[in-house]
Every structure is written in C-alpha cells, then in structure tokens.
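Reminder to self: tokens first, then the designed residues, so the page reads top to bottom the way the pipeline ran.
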C-alpha cells in the first residue's frame, strides 16, 4: 500500500470483494496496476492467484483491455487453479508457515468470492470505504 501511495487512487482487493472491485475498475476507464504484497520481497502464490482472477474477471466485463505479459501469465495461473484454489495453494512454498499459524480456515474463507462487497480505498494514512 505504501509503495502505491502516490498513485491516482489506491484500492484494496481480495476474492472477498472481487466482483464489486472489477465492476468499479471497468467504470474508471483508466490504466490499472495490480500490486501483490508477496512475502518478504518474493513472489507469492496466493496474491498472484488473486491478480490472475482479477484479470480473468476484467476480461469477462470488457473487450477494451490490453494485458501485459505478467497479467496474462497470472490469468493462466488462475485458470489452472480456479476449480480448487485451496488445493492449488496447498503447494505454496510457505504452506508450513500458514499451518503453524493455524490459518487454514482463514485462507479458505479468504478464497470465497464476494462475501464483503465493499472497496477499501486509501485516504491519507487510512483505509476507508469507497463511496460510489
């Protein structure tokens, strides 16, 4: 979030708000940069899976979209995982850390689409609900 602080607008997405976020992004008619938080400055499978899902959903909503190779690759990753994302993520490099932290239920919950149909947006140093 801090790395994007000077962007036009910083919004937060997850599977929990994917539809409302993608609908809003299409209406913006602006370039979109997806920043994945990763883990300790390394590629992170679950965040990348979400970026692929966003790409997939944006393509369903509009044909007027140009993808960079990164988004295209992550869309393919998502298409491989979409039928059972929990199983797909069971192969993640830091799955042991997640198990030790007893986060299996939390991860399963975070993969449920559209359970929190709000968009957090950065205003100053706070995240607030985006108003339509």
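Designed residues (132 positions):
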């Amino acid at each position: 979030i801090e790395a994007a602080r000077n962007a036009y607008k910083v919004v937060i997405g997850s599977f929990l708000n994917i539809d409302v976020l993608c609908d809003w992004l299409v209406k913006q008619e602006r370039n979109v940069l997806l920043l994945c938080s990763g883990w300790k400055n390394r590629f992170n499978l679950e965040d990348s899976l979400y970026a692929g899902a966003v790409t997939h959903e944006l393509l369903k909503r509009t044909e007027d979209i140009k993808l960079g190779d990164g988004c295209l690759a992550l869309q393919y990753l998502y298409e491989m995982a979409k039928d059972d994302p929990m199983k797909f993520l069971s192969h993640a490099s830091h799955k042991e850390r997640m198990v030790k932290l007893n986060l299996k239920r939390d991860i399963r919950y975070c993969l449920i689409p559209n359970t929190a149909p709000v968009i957090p947006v950065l205003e100053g140093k706070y995240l607030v609900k985006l108003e339509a």
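The chain is about 45% helix and 5% strand.
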